[in-house]
Structures are given as C-alpha cells and as structure tokens.
Amino acid sequence: MADAPAATYDKTTISLHWASAGLIALLWIGGQTGDWFSGQPKLIAWSTHVTLGFALTLVLVWRLVWRRSSGRHLPPANSGALQILAQSTHHLLYGLLLIVLALGIVNAFVRGFNLFGVASLPQLGDREWRKPITELHGLAANILLGLAFLHAAAALAHHYLLKDGVLSRMLPERASEKPSVH
Q: pTM of whole model > 0.85?
C-alpha cells in the first residue's frame, strides 16, 4: 500500500518558517529598543540588529530557494475566498519582508554601519537619505509585524475554531512523525 499524503510540511520548511518568525520578532523588538541605550550598549544593540537582519536575509533566500526546489508542497487547506485570502496574505508577507530587508540593508550601507566596533560597512549614498530610509524601514517593519499578527491569529482561529489541522501542518513536533500507511 502507498503512503498517505503528507499532512505536514517537511522539517526544513518548518525550521525556516519558525526561524523567520523568531528573527522577525527579535529584529522588531531590537528596532524599537535600540535607541534606549547609549555608548557601547547602543553599539551592541544596533550591531546585533543589523547582523540579525543579514541573517534573516539569508534565511529568506534559503526559504525561497527551498520552497521552489525541494520543499514539500501541500494542497490548499481551504477553497474559495479563504484560499484566496490565505495565498494573498502569504504573498503580502513575503513582499513586505523583502521590502523591510531591502530597506534595512540600504539603511545599513547609507550609514556605513559600524558592527560591534570591529568592522564598518562601506558608506554608500548621501547622508540625507538616512532619516527617510530609516522611517520607511520602520513603517514597513510595523506593517509587516501587524500582518504577521493577523497571520498568527488566523492560524490560531484555524486551530481552535475551525479545528481543521492547518496549524499542525507547520508545528515542529509533527514534522518528525511519518505519514500513516493505509
């Protein structure tokens, strides 16, 4: 007998999803609190923010390549309007994340950012760009976080209200289970 279709995403897809979510949360918190400090603690806070931003960029690239090449593709959990809404939300999340990361990278280079007092990124562009790029980066990050909260709320609604197993498709502990054999 053949294996039943997989009910969960593969371990790599799940790991990349949760790594992205965790990094986004840490980066947003760091972006909101980085200026609370001064001197060396401020340098460490912003250096950590920039470094984690570059790490998230690598995770996102890996995630996109994995999704296109090797990741497990599951059938849509819903049809009709819910499917269109889910697909649109995912596309918007990826698009906003790309915008936030691009603006963050541009911001780091416009500033010639000093990382941990050890190395500096080359300063590219005009200093007058700093404020508008920083503001756009922050605005896009806030919108991304708001959409991510809606995404999480929808997953919880699927789990607790619809009880349709959508959330369990992306939970780490389920990825280790093998599909049932019929």
A: yes
